[in-house]
Design goal:
Radius of gyration: 38 Å
Structural class: alpha+beta
Order of helices and strands: HHHEEEEHEEEEEEEEEEEEEEEEEEEEE
Helix content: 10-25%
Largest sheet: 5 strands, antiparallel
Distance between the termini: 131 Å
Number of helices: 4
Number of strands: 25
Shape: elongated
């Protein structure tokens, strides 16, 4: 009994007489397939059976079927083919998406002119000889029969700057300086030796702006200079400027610096105070100062001095508080970016704001302006009309433009013109024109205007210097040829 049990325990199941013979076709193969894993059934091929000798010496096939993985199996080849097709499809789809993205970027970025031939022959717009020079926020100033223009640091706001390719003296000076006798041909002072404003004040902090993948630029946060000559024979030159706040580095304030008039616009200017002149940090800061001198009979503000009233117009930089989008302020709710008028103290000849005159809002951003309005410039025509020039849109996009509004009094109300003065596409090639400076012509004849517009250069998309004549007729402004 014990022997029988032992035999039963070692005998495989089912008994040999009921098992299908491995050398017979038909159900045997199916039964074997059922025991194989999906992987082996799909990607393994039967190998040549091994021959063995029975006890009687007759050669027989091994009872165990041998299968080996094979790349040549039909299903493996099919899977490889499908994988290749999927890879090709993915590559094609990604290439298409990248191409669309490039086209979208190209369409959203300003198309930039590359030569003066981009402008139609009859255009009153003059492209200066400072080709490829980044000269944002130009300010025009006359002295001793010569024109000067001061501008924002040359490292500010360049688009798509190539790596390690920058202009000479890149970012070396807080303020740029150039001179000319005809407004078209300018001599640019090297930034490495230009010390118009070597120190922007204890209240400010060196900028950390970068352009593309460039290293930090220490002085790129000094913007939008403006000069005023104090009255009297001993009056100094005052430089109003924008600089980053040390208290809130992401926001800017307006400062004032002075130099003896004998030094001229090259300075050096020295900050007049340890504190900024205008600094509404809670509202986003203040930028783009521009002086305006008026007559006492043309203002509703009270005056304690017989001297001619001096004002500063500027922008409240509210888009620094925005919720994102173009220039940080196209995602609702949009932050206000009003243009303000601040009377300056007569006793200090412009070194302080007038204590009895709070700032007055001249203009607010509208929906048609996009994310902001900025860069205000105020002049009074020979007919007594106040023209407030400003830019709207985003300086990095092609919706940036030049607009204006008019009023009968310096503090408004101001009525907007129905059409922009300058915009992308005008005169056959302008792109994102803005940040104007308006001045009387030499000897007080006519009006001239300087502005910056985008041009593609070897250093990237820069804001190049342009000039034109300007006609103020009634409440209408029009660009005309220089000298008209």
């Amino acid at each position: 009994m014990e022997n029988k049990v032992q035999v039963l325990e070692t005998e495989s199941w089912p008994p040999s007489e009921t098992r299908p013979r491995e050398d017979l076709p038909g159900p045997k193969a199916n039964n074997q397939d059922e025991k194989l894993s999906i992987l082996k059934r799909l990607f393994y091929r039967p190998s040549i059976p091994q021959q063995s000798h029975s006890d009687g010496g007759q050669a027989t096939s091994s009872s165990k079927s041998q299968r080996r993985f094979s790349f040549r199996s039909r299903r493996c080849l099919a899977l490889i083919g499908i994988s290749i097709m999927l890879i090709v499809i993915i590559v094609v789809v990604l290439s298409t998406l990248l191409a669309r993205n490039s086209r979208a970027k190209a369409s959203s970025s300003p198309p930039m002119p590359g030569s003066p031939s981009d402008f139609v022959p009859e255009s009153p717009i003059q492209r200066t000889n400072l080709h490829g020079v980044n000269f944002p926020d130009p300010f025009l100033y006359q002295s001793s029969g010569k024109w000067y223009t001061l501008g924002t640091n040359n490292a500010a706001g360049i688009l798509d700057a190539p790596n390690n390719t920058f202009a000479q003296d890149y970012g070396d000076s807080n303020i740029q300086l150039a001179s000319s006798t005809d407004l078209v041909h300018w001599t640019l002072s090297p930034e490495s030796t230009t010390k118009v404003l070597a120190d922007s004040g204890h209240w400010s902090i060196s900028g950390t702006n970068t352009v593309g993948k460039a290293p930090p630029v220490p002085k790129a946060s000094d913007w939008a200079p403006d000069i005023y000559k104090q009255t009297g024979a001993s009056g100094d030159l005052l430089l109003y400027y924008t600089a980053a706040s040390a208290e809130r580095p992401g926001r800017h304030c307006i400062g004032v610096a002075s130099t003896p008039a004998s030094n001229g616009p090259a300075g050096p200017f020295v900050p007049a105070s340890a504190d900024p002149l205008i600094c509404p940090l809670a509202q986003g800061g203040a930028i783009d100062p521009a002086t305006f001198v008026d007559s006492p009979s043309n203002t509703t503000n009270t005056t304690t001095s017989a001297e001619t009233p001096l004002y500063l117009v500027y922008k409240v930089d509210g888009n620094t508080l925005g919720h994102g989008g173009e220039c940080g302020n196209t995602v609702p709710p949009l932050a206000p970016t009003p243009l303000m008028l601040q009377r300056l103290d007569a006793a200090s000849s412009g070194l302080r704001t007038a204590a009895d005159s709070p700032p007055v809002q001249l203009l607010a951003r509208s929906d048609a302006d996009g994310p902001l309005i900025e860069a205000p410039t105020l002049v009074r025509s020979a007919q007594g009309v106040y023209f407030l020039f400003f830019s709207s849109g985003c300086t990095r996009a092609n919706d940036y433009d030049v607009k204006y509004a008019t009023a009968d009094r310096v503090d408004g109300p101001y009525a907007r013109a129905s059409e922009p003065l300058l915009q992308t596409g005008d005169f056959g090639g302008l792109v994102a024109p803005g940040s104007v400076s308006v001045s009387r012509g030499m000897k007080g004849e006519g009006w001239v205007m300087a502005f910056a517009a985008r041009v593609q250069s070897q250093f990237g998309g820069v804001r190049e210097l342009f000039v034109t004549g300007l006609e103020l007729d009634g409440k209408v402004a029009k660009v005309v040829e220089l000298g008209s």
